[in-house]
Each structure stands twice: as structure tokens, then as C-alpha cells.
Amino acid sequence: MGPQHKLKPQTDAARWSNPASLETAWDARAEFAAQFVPAGSRVLDLGCGRMALQRFLPLGCDYQPCDLVRRDDRTIECDFNAGEFPADAAADADLIVLLGVLEYISDLDRFFAQIQRSGRPVILSYCPTDLSGDRDRTALGWINHLSLYDLAILFDRFGFVIECSAPVDELQIVMKLQPPDRQMAAPPCTVAVISFNDAGNFGDRLGYHMINAALPSQAVVHHLTFTTLERARDKYDLVVLGIGNSVFQPLLNDKVFEVVGRGKAAVGIFGTQYRELISRPSLDRLIDRMDTWFARYEDDLLLYGRGRSNAVHLGDWLIDQFPMTEATDEKPLLIGDEIWDDLPLDRTIQRIQRHKNVFSPRLHPLLCALTSAELVAYSEQPHERSPDVMSGKFRSMLLDVFGRTYPEKKFFAVDRNAVARYKSRVHRNVARLGEDISKILRNVAVAPA
């Protein structure tokens, strides 16, 4: 026999008016249900009975009882089977509790429509037919007979989602439901991120955190590196190439193109370096595949994104990780190989930002120093196999930040106002990047397979 949602039995007023009908054994259920209640909540207890729940609520909770008969001076009297419902109290509450109540409701659709209008989470107990076995439910006074599946259908019909659940005992279960406006707006999505996050590089370690923060909360993220592409899954909703790092010639290979092609959509978050050695056709092919290329520097955009509708200037988003501050240590700091040490990132940032004068042969330690130091200097990175070819990324970064470059290996004064303006501009761009990625994933979710 299917679920019976609209039966006509009246509430057994004689039973519920008799205090002897309120079993002390139900107190254990109330104690268990209190585990689902946040501290400081305003709790509306529908069908409060002995009001045992009040004793077990966490710190700072406000308790409002409601029942068929008055249990104390606070009690709101309601006959749910007569269509009565404490709408004002429900609107004032943070959550609604129903313990040992649902089995006695004759019109579940009407009752849940009233609860739905409150827009509040619900904590309820129920003895589903899956668990009650051969028990005579009618003899117990229960007037509806739902399985766990029937409950799920009922909740879904009114937009509620089961956030969590747990058995009270072998007969009954407690569930916490979230109303429609508190649910995740988008379905889960799969995202592959390809980067150098395994290199231990200061910038790549920071980029790992940046991309995780930029992706929407429902993203199921699969981090890949350029050396672990064989672990890629067959398909993704989105492939993200880069986390603010540089793309250069050895990375523009068929395996990268093949994995990028496994995404329904793709975005790039990268700059370029050692540009003289880059295969322009290969880079063009890669950018063509991107729904959006978020170019790190304006140089990147002018060189490889001109005329493209899918290319935008992001800026060096890692500057978002460095607060504007003022250095205090007069001792000059020379950034060396210790930047590769597996130190907590916050301590590395703080160490760099303590020094007024900083020399760095590494790109992102220099960017960090720009937010705090008075004087900085840098040296370009030559290509390992072609030492006459420089990375070019230092020049690009300085142009992005200051509108000009500076000679290498010579200290120059940091224009803090320019750094602050750049930081603000990039911060806005990063926010737009997050919005764009969320929009892409929403479009992918509704696109035909």
C-alpha cells in the first residue's frame, strides 16, 4: 500500500491531555535531537509534550513550546490536524523541532506547506515502515505509514533537503532538513587544475590556495601537475590550466592539449616566460581552446591575446596574498634557495615583509617585497639550456605594477601608491574571475551532454 498523506482522523485530544500518555522514555530522543541544534538558537518545539528538549538544548537557546494542550504558561495551543499552525512563532524561530509528531499528522501536505512558508530548518523524528517491521502502527495511534523513500519524496515536494540524519534506536530516525533558500544553488561539478603545485615553489604554493578559493564551493577539484597528467580522469566539467604561473615551451605538448580537451569548458590562468623559445602555433592552439584566458601580465595579453575575445588581463593574482604593510628591519634580505624550504607560507611572507631592503632572483618573493619594502632589486632568470634567453617575467611584472621597468641588480625605491593601486585593481579582477568561472560551470550544467 502506498503512502497515505491525506487521511481524515482527528487528533486524539483525550490521549494527549492525559499527562500519563507522555512517556519518559521519549526524553532520550529529545536529548539525542539536541545534538542537531546550534547554540543560541530560537527553537520552536511543535508537539512539545513534556518539554524534555528544553533541558538538553545548548547554551543560549530560547525555547518556545507548542502543543495541543497547554503544558505551561508559554505554550502555544495548536491542533495541527485541524489546520492550526503557529505561523508567527515559526517566523520568529531559527529552527522548528518535531519529535514524535509526524506519525500523528493526518494531512502531511498541508502541514509541510505551513512549515515551508516559515522558511526555517526542521529537526524531526519519524518511525518509518522500513524500521517498524511487523508492529501494528495503527494500534500505536499512528495515522500515516511512510517509508524512508516516501519521506524523501515528501520533503522534496516542498523543497526540503535532508542535511543529515541518524538513528535514535532500532525504530526511529532523526533528520535535519534545510529549506530551499539555504541549499546549494548549483549541483556538484568536477574541475581539473593543472599546475606546478608539486614543485615547492613559493609562487606555485600560493597559487594552489588562490585557485581553491576562486572555485565555487560545489567544485570537486582534481589537482594535476604537468608530470602527473596520466592520472587525469576521462572527463571534467572544467579544466583550469595554470594557477598564476608561467607557461613555456616544454609544457606546450600533446598530452596537455589532450587533457585540456577532456573538459566541457577550459580556462587558463597563466603568463608566459622565455618567449623567444615558445612555439607560437602551439600557444595559439592552447589559447584557442580556452573559454577564457586570464593573462597574468599586460605583456602577455599584447603579445598573444591581441584581437581575441577570450583573453583578458588578470594581473598577478598572488599579490592578493600579501597585505600592504611597512618593513622594520634595516638589515638587507637576499632571497636565496631557502625560499624552497617547506616552511609555512605565512612565515615566509612575514619574513620577507620584515626587511626594508630586499634583493630577489625569484619572481613572487619580489612581488611580496613590493608590498612592504622601501628598496628592492632583482635579477632575471636565464634559461637553463639557453642562458642568453631570459625569462622576461620580471620586466612584465614591473610594467604591470609601475608602468615601467627598472634595471636589474640595482636597488630602486618602491612606489607604494602604485603597488596599492595595482593590488586593488587585481583584487577586483580576481573577484570577476570567480564570477566568470561560476557562470561557466552553470552553463556547463545545463548544456546538453
Describe the structure.
The protein is elongated. Helix 8 links the parallel strand 8 and strand 9. It has a seven-stranded mixed β-sheet, with helices on both faces. It has a six-stranded parallel β-sheet with strand order 9-8-10-11-12-13. Strands 14-15-16-17 form a four-stranded mixed β-sheet, covered by helices on one side. The N terminus is likely disordered. It folds into three domains: 170 residues, Rossmann fold (3-Layer(aba) Sandwich), CATH 3.40.50; 130 residues, 3-Layer(aba) Sandwich (Rossmann fold); 104 residues, no CATH class. With 449 residues, the protein is α/β, with parallel strands linked by helices. The protein contains 15 helices and 17 strands. The protein is 32% helix and 20% strand.
